[in-house]
Design brief:
- This protein has 339 residues and is of the alpha/beta class.
- It has nine helices and ten strands.
- It has helices spanning 43-65, 84-101, 110-116, 165-175, 182-190, 213-229, 233-264, 279-292, 309-320, and strands at residues 3-8, 14-20, 23-30, 74-80, 105-109, 133-138, 143-150, 153-159, 268-272, 295-297.
- The strands form two sheets. Strands 3-2-1-4-5 form a five-stranded mixed β-sheet, sandwiched between helices. A five-stranded mixed β-sheet has the order 8-7-6-9-10, with helices on both faces.
- A hairpin with a 5-residue loop joins strand 1 and strand 2 (14-20).
- The protein starts with a strand and ends in a 19-residue tail after the last helix.
- Bound molecules: 5'-O-[(R)-(carboxyoxy)(hydroxy)phosphoryl]adenosine and zinc ion.
- 5'-O-[(R)-(carboxyoxy)(hydroxy)phosphoryl]adenosine (KG4) binds next to helix 4 and helix 5.
Length: 339
């Protein structure tokens, strides 16, 4: 019955979680409001906030889980990808904690963890995917189609060649003068907008790859041109613009997912990453899954954006294989999922 402490600090969430034998005992996330006024994550401010949050977050997690330090069997931490200064805080804490407790250390790839969140024992997860699994991972920094053969084997079938889907939501929100992070705001406004009010381009690049920079630019030019005729254009049409952009992002993502499923023959289809919180995407994937007769796995909201439960879960799988690392392990700003 291994007890794993997971630590996540790759971007702007300081998080810790404890899993016992795959079951979640505590899951604590501290966000960082400091970035809001800048309209995006400022790396230096993120590192400083992690430094302030890490001890109280770990403390709260241990208390909520009712787990004593000595009961922890291993410390898992996000090694990358992410902001190096942020990763350093979590990595250094994990190393010091493991050293002090004389417990093994487990390094975790953040993108693998988003996918393996689907295996957390949680009453909100009604069913578990089987392998091989095809996952559409959509976050602020990544957009990938990943074939997962088992909890240790990941192959990227396609990915974005420029902006990530989450980044596109955030940049479009910025163009529209909406606060950061843009994804949840666009999602909310889109609910009462007309998805067909405005037409934006659906890009087609590479085999199973994605591109979102053209969409972002076309929204930028469209808004700029409309504002010339009517300075109130955005204010009057923000819901329709959000709905139309969201529709285009979803269409782009699901077209590729459909192709990847056809190509691989895989019918176990999962969604992961921060953008998997998007209600339009969740609904559209459910619908497509019914049409295609796929088994669709959509994470509960708590496991969509960054959290440490997914880090602890990945740590648990690695613990079962005695896959430990030494104190010399350094964080990696770039860390390819298949490596
Ligand atoms: O996975 P995540 O928490 O962090 C990274 O690893 O990047 O993803 C954050 C991204 C942000 O771009 C945010 O705008 C987006 O997820 N996001 C959403 C929604 N909630 C978060 N995008 C669309 N709709 C949402 N409801
Ligand atoms: Zn993430």
């Amino acid at each position: 019955m291994p007890v794993i402490l997971g630590i996540e600090s790759s971007c702007d969430e300081t998080a810790a979680a404890i899993i016992r034998d795959g079951k979640l005992l505590a899951n604590v996330v501290a966000g960082q409001d400091v970035h809001r006024q800048w309209g995006g994550v400022i790396p230096e401010l993120a590192s400083r906030a992690h430094q302030q949050h890490i001890v109280p977050v770990i403390d709260k997690t241990l208390k909520e889980a009712k787990v004593a330090n000595e009961e922890i069997d291993a410390v898992a931490f996000t090694r990358g990808p992410g902001l190096l200064g942020s990763l350093l805080v979590g990595t250094s804490f994990a190393k010091a904690f493991a050293l002090a407790l004389d417990k093994p250390l487990i390094e975790v790839n953040h993108m693998q963890a988003h996918i393996l969140a689907h295996f957390i024992e949680d009453e909100n997860f009604l069913k578990k995917p089987k392998f091989p699994l095809l996952c559409l991972t959509v976050s602020g920094g990544h957009t990938q189609l990943v074939q997962v053969s088992d909890p240790y084997t990941f192959e990227v079938l396609g990915e974005t060649i420029d902006d990530a889907a989450g980044e596109t939501f955030d940049k479009v929100a910025k163009i529209l003068g909406l606060p950061y992070p843009g994804g949840p705001v666009v999602d909310k406004l889109a609910k009462t907008g007309d998805a067909h009010a405005f037409k934006f381009p659906v890009s087609r690049v590479g085999d199973l790859d994605f591109s979102f920079s053209g969409l972002k630019t076309s929204v930028l030019y469209f808004v700029r041109d409309q504002l010339k005729n009517d300075p109130e254009f955005v204010a009057k049409n923000v819901n329709d613009i959000c709905a139309s952009v969201q529709y285009t992002i979803i269409k782009t993502l699901l077209a590729r997912l459909e192709e990847a499923a056809a190509k691989t023959g895989i019918r176990q289809i999962a969604l992961a990453g921060g953008v998997s919180a998007n209600s339009g995407l969740r609904n559209a994937l459910e619908k497509l899954g019914e049409e295609k007769n796929w088994d669709v796995f959509i994470p509960p909201f708590a496991y969509t954006t960054d959290n440490a439960a997914m880090i602890a879960m990945t740590g648990y799988f690695k613990f079962l294989k005695n896959d430990f690392v030494g104190q010399e392990t350094a964080p990696l700003a770039r860390y390819y999922i298949g490596s």
